[in-house]
Amino acid sequence: MNRLLTLVVFFICSNAFADDDAFFHAFSQQISFKEAPSFKNTFSKSGVSIGAEILPLSEHTRLFGAEFDDDGIVLLMAITNDTRYRLLISGRDVKVRGTNSKQIGIVKFSNAMDLIDPSDANSVGKSLFTGYLKVFSLGIMSLAQGDTEDQVRRTFLRQSLMTKSFKHSILEPGDTQLGIVIFDRENWNKLANKSLFLSVQNLKRLAYLDLKLPLKNVKEEKNWYEF
Amino acid sequence: MRIIGLIIILLVLISGCAPSKPRPAEKELRPSLMVRPNIRMMREPQYKLKLGVVSMRDQRLSNFFGESDNFFRESVIQGLSQSIYLSLKRSHLFEETKRINIDMPDRMTRAELRKLATQNNVDVIFVSDIVVFNLLRKSLMDGDALEVKMGGQSDGDVVFNDFQLSVNYQLIGQLIYAKSGAILWAENVKRKKSVLGEDGTLSVNRLGLISQEVIKDTMVDMITLIKSTAVGVK
Question: Looking at residues A20-24, what average pLDDT do you find?
Fold first, then answer.
């Protein structure tokens, strides 16, 4: 009986949730690919290029299901390896430094998750709440799975963040790594004349290359902040 | 009124069988990450050198499940570092393999690495980063509720599984020759092990089993890759 009910619920709510929800859609969306030299704000050193820009707000919704709140600065960054060597990218060690010798690191994953509120109906858009039946069936689905609809959305958000974040990885010659990094706005605002720092390791012989990308030309859409 | 009554009964029935999310078990019941390596030992070592294995560096984006990392008897770093050490030792790739109990910094110069090797009387240092080690719980929506014949049940039994639970493990390892700083081997190794379940929970035994299997398989892949792709020392 329980299995039958669960099946019925799956059948009803597969349309109600999966087809309409922005978080579900975002899960299957990918970052548009471009190499680091194609960014407006780019820097090259010894054949390794780095580029960064503020992620447009429209892209927040497309890639994650809703806009990140104002407490976070979301950067899209890329690194392109035009050397003959394989490189190790320390994805968790991306830093922003100011001329006042202060620096900040990227926010923790759990904090990044908190920058999007899955229960914010406005952020989800009109798609989810289009009818009583859908809301009702979503509720049943949530109960059947032991999850609330927010938790289901958080699962999608979590997976979207995991796949689209800038990662610790090996970069082959000719390859590009692309991903987002998030910084805390309050700490960000304390820095003057910011530059993005990233260190890469050569995988032929132990050596490091420090990359510094000045963030002068990077501007936010809403002018919340100017670099 | 009848319809409302029916809805209430339906909700009560469903909520009664509602599963809960995987949660860490009590400390004494948690499974261990330290597994017996499933590695075939080489008769002759590939390198007539001494190897030192340092603790893994945590480069994960997120914890094992949700915000929790306390699913195992030991810490994730401790358990996985030990499994790497045991696998490399068991493989007999090097003449001697020893564990170096230090927290490896994110960045180490050649001189610092040479010093570390001299202090511990080894020639090669194995450095590794955990990139992913987590549990993903995916509800099989969109009519994906699979029909599978579960082992141990009579033929013809069909079970509708509503969840897929996967343990993902990904690491980046490097074998660095301390004398010259040459990197003999560096590779990304990853594995995933999934189980299907009627509900979203994961028993301690099943968690232990799939975590240990994914670790064993990753270690086998890593040792095979080292055997076949590592360069020699000039």
Answer: 79
- pLDDT tens digit sequence for A35-90: 999 998 999 999 999 999 999 888 998 999 888 888 899 999 999 999 999 999 98
Alpha-carbon B73 to chain mean position: 14
**The two three-digit tokens of residue B53, written as one number:** 């294995």
pLDDT digits (tens, 9 = 90+) for B143-169: 455 554 445 444 555 556 667 788 999
CA distance B86 to chain A (A): 24
User: Under an 8 A CB cutoff, do B181 and A18 touch?
Assistant: no
* C-beta separation of B131 from B59 below 8 A: yes
Give the other-Cβ count within 10 Å of B34's Cβ.
Answer: 18
Residues within 8 A of B (CB atoms), A 4-33 only: 5-7, 9-11, 13-14, 17-18
Would you say residue A219 lies in a domain? no
**Rounded CA separation A144/B145 (Å):** 13
- Phi then psi for residue B75, to 5 deg, are -70, 155
Q: Domain range holding A193?
A: 2-214
Q: State pTM to two decimals.
A: 0.81
Instruction: Please report which residue ranges of A65-173 form alpha helices under DSSP H.
Output: 109-114, 121-124, 132-145, 149-164
Q: If we measure between CA atoms, which residue out of B118, B128, B129 comes closest to residue B50?
A: B118
Topology of domain B27-135+170-191+204-229 in CATH is Rossmann fold (3.40.50)
Residue (of B54, B129, B201, B163) closest to A201 by Cα position: B129
Model confidence at B134: pLDDT above 80:
yes
What the block records as the tokens of B140 is 């099989």
Asked if the structure places residue A224 within a domain, the reply is no
